[in-house]
Amino acid sequence: MLHVLAALRLDICCAHINHQLRGDEAQRDENFVIEQCQKLKVPVVTMKIDVRDYAKKSKLSIETAARNLRIQNLIDIAKSQNCSCIATAHHKNDNAETIIDRLVRGTGLRGLCGIWPVKKFIDGIAFIRPLLCATRDEIIKYLNSRNLKWCTDRTNTDFAYRRNFIRHRLLPVLQNDSQSDIVENIAVLSKASRGFYKMVCRTADAIWPDVAAVKEQAVTLYSVKLASQPAEIKIEIIRRAISYLGAGEQDVTERHSQTYLRLSDNGRLQLPNCITVHRHGGEIIFDKHLKTKLAPINCARTCYVKSARNNAIRPLYNQR
Questions:
Q1: pTM for the whole structure
Q2: pLDDT for 73-104, tens place per residue?
Q3: Are 266 and 280 in contact (CB under 8 A)?
Q4: Which of 8, 27, 148, 257 is positioned for an S-S bond with 143, CB 3.0–4.6 A?
Q5: What is the dihedral of CA 309, 310, 311, 313, to 10 degrees?
Q6: Where do the H-state alpha helices sit in 17-170?
Q7: Any idea which fold 209-288 has?
């Protein structure tokens, strides 16, 4: 992706996040990225993050902690470099693995959408995936045809991570028993699901002011007004209510949403992130009764820029 974007002569900056999970190998990858950017004359920002410490303090898995820190710090880097979007190299195989993983855990329509080609954040930064139309084999073929090197993360073969089991064991078995391309079939399903989910969102946008009342630490849904809506709309409205109060996407499933809708009068349930839901007459009230404390982030950042005189890459600043 870096080579393609550079070849298009776009005004880009490369960002590399070192998760510090693989010791010398992680540093090798960071050095490789800096070297590639130097050859392409592309400015690069590198950052080291302490994923293990953050995961322990936040009581998260290593994968979730790494993802949260990575997204947060990529957004920070984009802002510091005046970038309006962040391009990541997710491809068709990544999308297929994501959807299968969600199916294993349990998912609804929204989960079948997979990885979105464009995802905008509240602060105006957009994540884009320009390689989502290509498979892993097509990307490797492109690299080989141009004699371009790449690094391989050895943890990609560690079956302790469910995604690796899906990639190396489950997907090949499914493909062997299929007469068509499984990854391509899932891509078609993903695109169709995104189209349908967009329609659901448009309806949810239109009725939200009538069915929901929002306060700083609470969202009230009017069950009588919501009752006439299709199940997909109800689930989306509930997801928005919980997300508004700070619950993560993985905390809201279709099963949870149905449970909330069936709460008896004065019934109460505890949700993740210190959120409770209870019914009072015709109201379903989501209340965040305690502000959560995020674990401190331990990271170091180095920004490298081209020298106007000799095109060398030099450190611009360090931030901890």
A1: 0.81
A2: 999 999 999 999 999 999 999 999 999 999 98
A3: yes
A4: 148
A5: -100
A6: 24-40, 51-58, 62-80, 92-105, 109-112, 136-145, 162-165
A7: 3.30.465
